Amino acid sequence: MQPPIGDFDQAIPAPDCLDALTRPVADAVRHWRGGVPAEQILYVDTEPEWADTATFVEHYGRGLLEQSANCVVVSGRRGGDTTLAACLVLSTTRVDVNGVVRRHLGARKASFAPMDTATGETGMEYGGITPVGLPADWPVLVDSAVVDLPWVLVGSGRRRGKLLLPGKACAELPGAVVLDGLGVA
Question: Would you indicate the residue range of the signal peptide (predicted)?
């Protein structure tokens, strides 16, 4: 199938290529519930060495920068309690960790989670973390600008490959909370 965005050779419905995904992502696709059918989550094969956003858009289409979202793992602390969460923001913005995230998590301090925590807790590769298939008890904070996109490009759980999905599907992810101003310039 021709992908709806980007210069990719083809797009494959994610349910038809579960073996290309990490276990948590494949499980999430397999058990997908919501108004957007799982078949509208598409997988595109990409080269792992081009996974970082700037290099990626050079190879797969400059217009992808405005249609891509980054998923980052954050840690909020209050007293002795730590809460892990994921944040999904447009690639052209950065996560407002010390404002929107900290307040939403009710944390005294919020920061980006260390790489080994992010990969160990998600079962995904660094540079490929996706909002699809995150631990069920995590809040998934989604910037409203991501939800407004017709199609959004996100990680696949690995550095190889990406997922394309309707922006509105991001609001249907388990634990999703749509927030205005999560991504800032």
Answer: none
Q: What is the mean pLDDT of each run of 10 residues along the chain (185 residues)?
A: 93 97 97 95 92 83 91 95 97 96 96 97 94 97 98 95 97 97 96
> What number of helices (H) and strands (E) belong to the chain?
6, 11
**Residue 85 structure tokens:** 């969460």
- The domains of the chain, with CATH numbers, are 12-175 (3.90.960.10)
Burial 112-146 (b: 16+ CB within 10 A, else e): ebeeeebbebbbbbeebbbbbbbeeebbbbbbebb
Q: What is the C-alpha separation between 73 and 175, in angstroms, rounded? A: 14
Quote the CA–CA distance of 37 and 179 in Å, as a whole number: 23
Instruction: Please state, in angstroms and as integers, the Cα–Cα distance from residue 159 to each residue in 21, 37, 62, 128, following that order.
Output: 10, 25, 19, 5
Of 125, 154, 160, whose CA–CA distance to 47 is shortest? Answer: 160
Handedness of CA 133, 140, 90, 98 (dihedral sign): negative
The structure tokens listed for 20 are 């290309």
Whole-model pTM: value is 0.95
DSSP string, 17-35: -GGGS-HHHHHHHHT--SS
